[in-house]
Design a protein that fits this description.
- The complex is a heterotrimer.
- Chain A is built from ten helices and seven strands.
- By secondary structure, chain A is an alpha/beta fold.
- Chain A has two domains: about 160 residues, NADH:ubiquinone oxidoreductase-like, 20kDa subunit (Rossmann fold); about 80 residues, no CATH class.
- Chain A has a five-stranded parallel sheet, sandwiched between helices. Chain A has a two-stranded antiparallel sheet with strand order 1-2.
- In chain A, helix 3 links the parallel strand 5 and strand 6.
- The radius of gyration of chain A is 20 Å and the shape is globular.
- By secondary structure, chain B is α/β, with parallel strands linked by helices.
- Chain B folds into two domains: about 100 residues, Elongation Factor Tu (Ef-tu), domain 3 (Beta Barrel), CATH 2.40.30; about 170 residues, Nucleotide-binding domain of ferredoxin-NADP reductase (FNR) module (Rossmann fold, 3-Layer(aba) Sandwich).
- Chain B contains seven helices and 15 strands.
- In chain B, the strands form three sheets. Chain B has a seven-stranded mixed sheet with strand order 10-9-8-7-11-12-15, sandwiched between helices. Chain B has a six-stranded antiparallel sheet with strand order 4-3-6-1-2-5.
- In chain B, strand 8, helix 5 and strand 9 form a beta-alpha-beta unit.
- Chain B is globular.
- The N and C termini of chain B lie far apart (about 60 Å).
- By secondary structure, chain C is α+β, with helices and mostly antiparallel strands.
- Helices cover about 30% and strands about 20% of the residues of chain C.
- In chain C, the strands form two sheets. Chain C has an eight-stranded mixed sheet.
- The chains are: A alpha/beta, B alpha/beta, C alpha+beta.
- Chains in contact: A-B, A-C, B-C.
- The interface between B and C is large, with 59 and 73 residues.
- The structure holds flavin-adenine dinucleotide, iron/sulfur cluster (SF4) (5 copies) and FE2/S2 (inorganic) cluster.
- The site of FE2/S2 (inorganic) cluster has 13 residues of chain B, from loops.
Chain lengths: ~260, ~300, ~350
């Protein structure tokens, strides 16, 4: 494939992109390969250097590195540091990379116990699960479990066009209400929509499943008021904490409890 | 199951729907086109400082260009397709029907896109929008213009007006402050303003460099340099939010009537047409009733300055 | 206006005919909340049986038929250095069934704001012209306060309004279209009894209000109480979630975003309904936020809703449906906030001149 394309007469560089997976389900990568109708256009923007789900070629001269998954082994740490050195833009791609994700549940149990349960009798080296930004500087976060493919496309287009990349600052409720969903609180459940960053088009709540906050906190959230309203409604605080801890995305807010 | 008797036929919108309220657009023949812009060619780009460039735009359609009129103080919505549109004050002369000049600071998404375009590129403008400085009402009076930093951009149109109609006004003072000497804009026009048109220019910078021979300090330090006949003076103030309060209360103490002091406010804007509500200040919209307000209105609008 | 009376059975036939021949929306039950109450929304309906004529109130208003939550305002097609901007102001006809008086009042207010100002909105006008609105009266819910706002009755802005008088509907016909459709059905001129029943019905509604908000001189109070601690008190509860504006029939503000198509051959300008409660509503380049605190933002919502903006002659735009109050998880509602504000200065405000209510 030739390297430069033109747009409005101006040549642009395709983004030299590579994707790396760490501890995760690879669901986020798959999400990209899923963009059915727009996939050819999307790939037209990219010069894929290393991407398991899209191409079998492997090169090491990438500018943009998508990091998928969280970090839970020493060899992963080293691999990540090496990628950071090469990448001009390092993207924490998906909830696991951004916040630790579901994997972080394991941090709540002693390591030995876990190994015994999952790999009994084996010598397994494992560290507490950490998000990417605990170890290296991250240039861009694309949260979501899995990521929203339209959002990824939008962000990649922004990178190509050199325009600013932004995520919505407001919470999921805005998008949820736009779909005329009945609020899950009205149905007696706890939903993290009011404190979670929008952008997923409220896929969970419009399917009558509470939001678990996979996209992380929205900007300037009012956690104190949120906790107060859960209490006031007589809903289970355990359930609330379970939900807040699910993706490890609300860690900085958890000592808020009164 | 369709029963043709009960099918509601689609209805178009047409001119008559708007007959009672023709929008203030120049292009009156196409009233419904409030979402369209005039296409412009960027005919010249001058780099002023690290952060600011002066863009010269020429409306491509000759008829539209000839019909385009604005008043000093009004602004445009400048559209860079694909990136968005932003409100920008017109800082060229209102008698210049050939091209428009916009002085733009690179701060974010759209303005960065503008900084990467080259001469010959195309952009679009909507407008002009908003209120203007009452130049006719000011005639026959002393004029005091006070600009801080980029505040000179919206003041350039009234400055042109003053230069072009100098004989209609008494004394004209321009107090202009910036952070550094290199950030003083339009210095090449200083001589014309001073020598030819007898506009008393007072500049000041916060941080001087060795070459700087002028004054050093805040804009308020210039107040002592001038004497003002308060009864016959109109003032125009433009600058960052913090400046308004200090300068306006000083002018107020001097005794300039509140309805003779004008400010140009800045708010977030998405439409320019009083529809998105983003620019609301107090109980009104900056894009419709502003950006130029007299100080009395500002005092009445909550949170204005 | 022309008045007719139609039997409920015949009316059902009339609605059925409309629904079968046009894209139609009406109240439908979508869920049952944890207290056991039905939750209604305006949903697509395909036959008259789909419509819950006896519904209480929809959780979300009908405004999104006129102001969609999300819409593409224009599309740019690039060729070379140039582009073509494509805008469509076309709308498909819709029949909206069962709007309440307050919903229709809100549409009238939107007409005023969006069509009578300096720059009429063609997109809104197209949708408004292509709607067929059938209003229906109802007995107020315990928390409705549209009577306080003087919006419990409505005389314009609909094609047809139905008042329930027992076995019949008392019809107010406000468009030739509605009149012509009704010719195909059996209606009669209202007789003396019908008129009495209508008056009875109106009295019943009138007296059914349990919530009353004193809006006398409210704009003045809002001005005077600009720095009141009440705002901080309620602001501290607010989640900045925008729910109140999304469900409100008269909130109309928005945000514009532009993005390139993935193939870079075009770009679209998209409009999303926004809310002044969202944190970045008033943020300008450089990061300065003109309203940094929850309380500041909440105050502005009340300012816009209850003080009114100069653009529409300082008319209050709240119609008193209390949808915002019902939907707010934090329990913030106009009644409590305004009463709180009043308490602040109750004793000295009594002599202030009358409210700007439109009569
Ligand atoms: C009446 C008026 C006149 C102006 N005149 C000039 C001028 O002559 N020269 C100049 O350099 N700047 C001027 N500005 C400020 C200019 O509009 C902002 O710098 C510009 O909107 C920033 O857009 P951005 O996309 O680069 O920044 P971002 O931070 O990426 O902004 C994103 C969006 O926020 C909105 N926005 C952000 N900041 C502002 C702001 N300060 N005012 C209004 N909307 C904002 C815009 O809609 C913009 O699209 C003026 C603003 C107003 C209201
Ligand atoms: S269901 Fe969740 S996201 Fe939706 S409105 Fe309720 S709290 Fe917000
Ligand atoms: S609703 Fe919540 S959990 Fe579901 S995708 Fe959106 S942010 Fe994630
Ligand atoms: S008032 Fe209620 S509904 Fe509105 S933004 Fe605040 S918390 Fe959300
Ligand atoms: S009250 Fe707030 S949310 Fe409603 S229209 Fe006004 S600015 Fe928008
Ligand atoms: S502000 Fe609340 S009560 Fe008033 S119209 Fe909007 S939703 Fe209804
Ligand atoms: S810019 Fe939209 S209302 Fe003023």
């Amino acid at each position: 494939m030739e390297k430069t394309m033109t747009h409005k007469g101006v040549p642009f560089e395709r983004l030299k992109i590579a994707s790396f997976d760490f501890t995760c389900c690879e669901g986020c990568q798959l999400q990209l390969a899923n963009c059915e109708s727009s996939l050819p256009d999307f790939l037209g923007l990219l010069d894929v250097r290393n991407f398991r789900e899209i191409s079998s070629e492997r090169y090491d001269d990438y500018d943009i590195a998508l990091i998928e998954g969280s970090i839970s082994r020493q060899d992963e740490v080293e691999r990540l540091l090496k990628i950071r050195k090469q990448a001009k833009i390092l993207v924490a791609y998906g909830t696991c990379a951004c916040f630790g994700g579901v994997n972080s549940l394991k941090n709540r149990h002693p390591v030995e116990e876990l190994i015994d349960e999952v790999y009994p009798g084996m010598a397994i080296e494992t560290l507490p699960v950490r998000k990417i930004s605990d170890l290296v500087e991250v240039d861009l976060f694309i949260p979501g479990c899995p990521v929203d493919k339209r959002e990824v496309e939008r962000i990649v287009v922004s990178l190509v066009k050199g325009s600013l990349v932004t995520l919505p600052k407001y919470p999921v409720c805005v998008e949820c209400k736009a779909q005329l969903t009945t609020c899950l609180f009205e149905l007696g459940e706890i939903c993290l929509g009011p404190v979670t960053r929008a952008g997923c088009n409220a896929v969970c709540t419009s399917g009558k499943t509470p939001c678990l906050g996979c996209r992380g906190p929205a900007e300037e959230i009012n956690m104190a008021a949120f906790l107060a309203l859960v209490k006031e409604r007589g809903l289970s605080l355990d359930d609330l904490h379970e939900k807040l801890a699910f993706y490890n995305a609300f860690e900085p807010f958890l000592n808020h409890e009164a | 199951m369709h029963d043709l008797r009960f099918v509601i036929p689609p209805q178009d919108i047409n001119r008559e729907d708007f007959a009672s309220s023709v929008p203030d657009f120049n292009r009156r023949s196409e009233i419904m086109r409030t979402d369209f812009g005039y296409k412009c060619m960027v005919s010249n780009i001058v780099r002023l400082t690290e952060q600011e460039k002066l863009f010269q735009l020429r409306i491509i359609d000759p008829v539209e260009r000839a019909l385009f009129r604005f008043k000093p103080g009004q602004f445009l919505m400048l559209e860079v397709p694909g990136y968005g549109d932003v409100p920008i004050s017109i800082s060229s002369s209102s008698s210049n029907h050939e091209f428009l000049e916009l002085c733009i600071r690179k701060v974010g998404h759209v303005t960065s896109a503008l900084f990467s375009i080259k001469e010959g590129a195309r952009v679009a403008i909507r407008g002009p929008f908003g209120s203007a400085f009452p130049m006719d009402e000011m005639a026959g009076h002393n004029i005091l213009l006070i600009a801080g930093g980029l505040g000179i951009a919206p003041l350039r149109a009234p400055l042109y007006w003053l230069n072009e109609h100098r004989d209609r006004f008494l004394d004209v003072h321009l107090l202009y402050g910036a952070k550094e000497p290199s950030q003083l804009l339009f210095t090449w026009q200083f001589d014309e303003w001073k020598m030819i048109n007898h506009i008393n220019l007072h500049t000041i910078v916060e941080r001087a460099d060795p070459q700087w021979l002028g004054k050093k300090g805040m804009i308020t330090d210039l107040f002592n340099d001038i004497t003002i006949a308060t009864a016959t003076t109109y003032a125009i103030v433009c600058g960052p939010p913090v400046m308004f309060k200090i300068v306006c209360s000083w002018l107020d103490r001097l005794g300039i009537p509140m309805n003779r002091m004008f400010v140009s406010l800045e708010r977030r804007m998405h439409c320019g047409m009083g529809k998105c509500c983003r620019c609301m200040v107090g109980s009104t919209f900056t894009c419709i009733d502003g950006p130029v307000f007299d100080y009395w209105s500002v005092m009445n609008l909550k949170e204005a300055i | 206006m022309i008045y007719k009376v139609i039997s409920k059975k015949e009316f059902t036939g009339f609605v059925d005919a409309l629904v079968h021949s046009n894209r139609s929306f009406g109240p439908k039950q979508v869920a049952t909340d944890h207290r056991g109450n039905a939750v209604y929304q305006f949903q697509p309906v395909h036959s008259v049986a789909d419509i819950a004529f006896d519904y209480s109130a929809t959780a979300s208003s009908a405004k999104h038929f006129f102001l969609p939550f999300r819409e593409e305002l224009s599309h740019f097609h690039f060729h070379g250095n140039d582009w073509e901007q494509q805008i469509s102001y076309e709308a498909n006809p819709v029949v909206l069934i069962g709007l309440r008086a307050c919903d229709i009042s809100a549409l009238n207010i939107l007409d005023d704001v969006l069509l009578n100002g300096h720059f009429p909105s063609p997109g809104y006008l197209a949708r408004r012209k292509n709607s067929f609105v059938i209003g229906m009266d109802h007995l107020p819910l315990p928390d409705c306060f549209c009577k306080s706002m003087n919006h419990h009755t409505v005389t314009t802005g609909f094609n047809l309004f139905c008042s329930d008088i027992g076995d019949h509907y008392y019809l107010s016909i406000n468009s030739s279209k509605a009149f012509n459709f009704l010719r195909e059905f059996e209606t009669r001129e209202p007789n003396y009894d019908d008129n009495c029943m209508l008056v009875e019905r109106r009295k019943l509604i009138q007296n059914g209000f349990q919530t009353d908000i004193d809006v006398t001189a409210l704009p003045t109070i809002l001005d005077i109480e600009f720095d009141s601690p009440v705002w901080e008190k309620w602001g501290d509860k607010c989640l900045n979630c925008g729910t109140c504006a999304m469900v409100c029939p008269s909130c109309y503000c928005y945000s514009l975003t532009e993005s390139f198509d993935t193939n870079l051959n075009g770009a679209s300008r998209e409009k999303k309904l926004y809310s002044c409660n969202l944190v970045d509503f008033a943020v300008v380049a450089g990061g300065h936020n003109f309203r940094p605190k929850n309380g500041d933002r909440l105050k502005y919502r009340y300012y816009h809703q209850h003080r009114g903006f100069a653009e529409n002659a300082s008319q209050q735009i709240c119609v008193g449906c209390n949808r915002c109050g019902r939907a707010c998880l934090a329990g913030i509602n106009p009644k409590d906030v305004i009463n709180d504000l009043r308490m602040e200065k109750e004793s000295c405000m009594t002599c202030v001149s009358s409210s700007p209510r439109k009569i």
